[in-house]
Gfo/Idh/MocA family oxidoreductase
Amino acid sequence: MQCIIPAWLIVADSYMNELNKNTCRLGILGSAAIVSRAVLDVISHIPQVEVVAIANRTRSKALHLAQRYSIPHVLHSLEEVLEHPHVDAVYIALSNDLHMEWVLCALEAGKHVLVEKPAGLGKEDAQQLASALKQSPSLVFMEGIITAHHPWQAALKAIVNSGQYGLLNRTETRISIPAPKSHRDNYRSVRLKGGGCFNDLGCYWLQWIQHLVGLEGSRVSAFSNFDGPDGCDWTFNAKLRYGNGFEANVLTSFELPYKAMHTLYFERATVVVPNFFKPLTGFYSLKIRLNDSNPQTYLKQFEPMNYYVNQLQAFANRCLHPDVRQAEGHLSVERMIWHQTIMEYAQQHATMNRETGNEGSHF
């Protein structure tokens, strides 16, 4: 898709930005359920952000949200949001296969971008994003991996770096969220729309491992039967092995019982972050625990927080304060490449297993 941005937009937007340096005026692309949770229900906690426009291909859905949340402008197309002179930034909440297309259009239109995860679906998307970010160095790009903006990640990294429990040998991550109605009529159950559990949930693991130890230098193995709807992966295992002996493992699933936990196995202790998705649904306190016989012992307890508030606040800070902008785009680019490498490994081995009649996990 080629995005044609009117010349008047550049002049008008520049002028209005001078008048609104203390407010990030947000336009929303899409009307999925995540829009309310990620932006509209939490925006009252972030006075620097104002939602000024929304558009959706099914306009009635956008009208419903606009009425419920007092959004002043319901536009007729996604393009109109990008062309609107009073929109500084956009939040993109479309199906996975449309994310990168509209990220590129938004950056070309001169808008800061917050896009739902995954930002893209492969190496081609990664290359396009890298090129677009190079051409728009003053714009903010953020992929909506909500867990990235909670201090538990920095706290775990500090524990690893301190060496207080010896070397970190292995991590185990479990992210399983049963699919309501098998995600029927949902992009998560459509292969060509980026469906499957690893596209939906694996990004949280990749971002955490990237932050904790980095991704470079690891060797990939992965497995799925790809036996979900439309050949999507409904349970997916992946492992990264590093030259120093460290291993990072993950299990994601749309069919196993709910669980969201990171476990870190050190030489002299085991550390866990139980139910790390809890701040999705409100303001909750998380704890980093020692996995011993006493459930009351913990290494760190955090103030009650909400992931979506943290994320939107971080995005607003970067949009409004150039001095605190962080080059997060290259991290998303790296994750996209590794994500596809992992997925390709699992797909190739699933194909070989089917051809040899040797189905089942050999992970």
Observations:
- The CA atoms of residues 156 and 212 lie 8 Å apart.
- The chain has two domains: 7-144, 148-319+338-353.
- Residues 329-356 form the longest helix (28 residues).
- The chain is about 35% helix and 20% strand.
